[in-house]
Specification:
Blueprint lengths: L9 E5 L4 H12 L3 E6 L2 H11 L7 E4 L8 H12 L4 E4 L14 H29 L3 E6 L12 H21 L4 E8 L8 H4 L2 H10 L12 H8 L10 E4 L7
Parallel strand pairs: 1-2, 1-4, 2-3, 4-5, 5-6, 6-7
Helix pairs in contact: 1-8, 3-4, 4-5
Length: 253
């Protein structure tokens, strides 16, 4: 259907070097978006570029450290210099510190919040300012988590950041709706990624998790493709301030 067509749209995707970010970037490219893939690792980006080039001739790789909040506006400016505009922002970059709350350090907290929440806000603001100046709207997609809605032990900084994403999505959605900017989130359940590999490597923990997922399996990056393209496309023009949970039925069970 043409309402899901992203041809001519420029999509800036953070965390595109691996895992869910790479899968979501690929989904946007398959829908004909012109994808700018951002990651701290140039090596990982090159692997992503190999995938993106199968679906378009002009993907762009931008190695960038999202941990410096003073350079996030510079990132958006750089992308617009190369591509002319940003129509879709997908902030999928993520880090994890897995330890009991009593052992979390200030550095642990700042590292996780800096990528998940601080970068989400300042990137969204930088993109939205330019969308408003152009007066042609756009899409902002953030990534939430099961930990946005349920308690999971040993991931306090991550859960706090992901819970903050939901509040940020709602606030920005309300503020920017008059400018035809839709702000939504995708909420993945348990997916096979670098962040979760230690969980799935433990047979007992893996068995416990799978028993809790009605679908009977963990998610794979391609399971996010439909929700990602929907939120990036004209199909979601009247939807804002929402989260689409892609969790194999976890929250429903």
């Amino acid at each position: 259907m043409r309402i899901f067509d992203l041809q001519g749209k420029v999509a800036l995707v953070t965390g595109a070097g691996r895992g869910l970010g790479r899968g979501m970037a690929t989904a946007l490219a398959e829908a004909d978006a012109d994808v700018v893939a951002v990651s701290r690792s140039a090596d990982q980006l090159e692997e992503t570029m190999t995938l993106l080039r199968r679906h378009g001739d002009n993907p762009q790789a931008v190695p960038w450290d999202l941990g410096d909040p003073h350079r996030l506006d510079d990132l958006v400016e750089k992308v617009e210099e190369q591509k002319g505009r940003v129509d879709v922002l997908l902030h999928a970059a993520g880090v994890q510190v897995r330890k009991p709350a009593l052992e979390v350090t200030v550095d642990d907290w700042e590292t996780v919040q800096g990528i998940h929440l601080r970068a989400a806000f300042f990137l969204s603001r930088a993109v939205a300012r330019r969308m408003i100046e152009r007066n042609d709207g756009g899409k902002i997609i953030l990534v939430a988590s099961l930990t946005s809605q349920i308690g999971v032990p040993n991931v306090a900084p991550y859960a706090a950041g992901k819970s903050g994403i939901l509040g940020l999505v709602r606030t920005l959605a309300v503020e920017w709706a008059p400018h035809s900017i839709q702000v939504n989130a995708v909420g993945p359940g348990y997916f096979r990624t670098t962040i979760t590999e230690e969980i799935f490597a433990d047979p007992e923990r893996r068995s416990t998790l799978l028993a809790r997922i009605p679908a009977g399996r963990p998610g794979e990056p391609e399971d996010l493709a439909g929700a990602t393209v929907f939120l990036a496309s004209p199909a979601s023009d009247y939807m804002t301030g929402q989260v689409i949970n892609v969790d194999g039925g976890w929250l429903a069970g």
